[in-house]
Amino acid sequence: MTAAARLKGTACHSAVDTFDIAVVQTGSRIGAWQQNIDAVSSEVRVLAAGGSKVIVLPELFASGYDLDSIDAMAESVPGRTSIALGELAAETDTVLVTAMVFRDSEGVVFDSSLVVGPDGLLALGHKRFLWDRENAVFTPGAQSGLLVDTLFGSIGVVICYEAGFPETVRDLVQRGADIIAVPSAFGHVRLHVWKLLTRSRALENGVVVAAAGLTGQTGDGPRFAGHSVIVGPQGRTIVEMAETVGSVSATVSRRELQDARDEVPYLKDLARLGGITETRTTENDHERNRDVRSAIS
After folding, report:
1. What is d(CA 199, CA 184) in angstroms, rounded to the nearest whole number?
2. In angstroms, rounded to a whole number, what is the distance separating the alpha carbons of residues 270 and 139?
3. Domain boundaries of the chain, sorted by first residue
4. I want to staple 59 with a disulfide (CB 3.0 to 4.6 A). Which of 76, 110, 163, 185 is the partner?
5. pTM of the prediction?
6. 16-296 has which CATH code?
7. Which GO molecular function, any one, fits this protein according to its record (predicted)?
8. Phi, psi torsion values for 260, nearest 5 degrees
């Protein structure tokens, strides 16, 4: 059965046995929205022709990452970016995940995750944990992480810096995420962090991490890390790019998710024991510490 047939013909995501995933890596020019959209659209069409059904795009790829021009970049939803990506998703029969500069009806500006599918908009979320200068131009979202149920499985979305918060990713996985999508504009100076956190979040949760980042440099702005990557549920890198523009894809089976969670049962043990501390009649930290001391004295 083809990937396209699975997506169109499956009524419940639990019946799907494989994930056909891809990440797109691109540079992004400020003030060149159409050029940015066209470049990514070309990659998406090639990936879709090869069977990819879930495609993660970098953070703010359409507008470019320029914190000094955020107000001019902000869009509503529906707006030109969400409409263009919705049309592309319908054309290619794919689910597309990205992050964009969003302005709500009250004029509040967010760095927002956007998920569109063949039938249009699936979900919109707002980045809660903002990196450095982002705090001066964006409003934090009410909740970190976005969970989207699709016909092939559940996608948890965290934007760039948010992937460094294990609590957010763990919450998404405990709520049913099969894939963690990470649209990013990660700084090259922290490339070692990017490589560590993408593998860690996958291993800790027995989940696939698909992280797509910007590459190159925007004007006099930061140099981006590139190294878009798909990590398997055992924490092993399946495919990883360097710093070139392009895309990579992978097919991961649901059996691999289950095998990884059986091999290292973090989730099962958390559920079995009800969390990281035993339920007691007191929540006094000093009492808990005294219990530990008495056990080892």
Report:
1. 15
2. 33
3. 16-296
4. 185
5. 0.90
6. 3.60.110.10
7. hydrolase activity
8. -65, -40
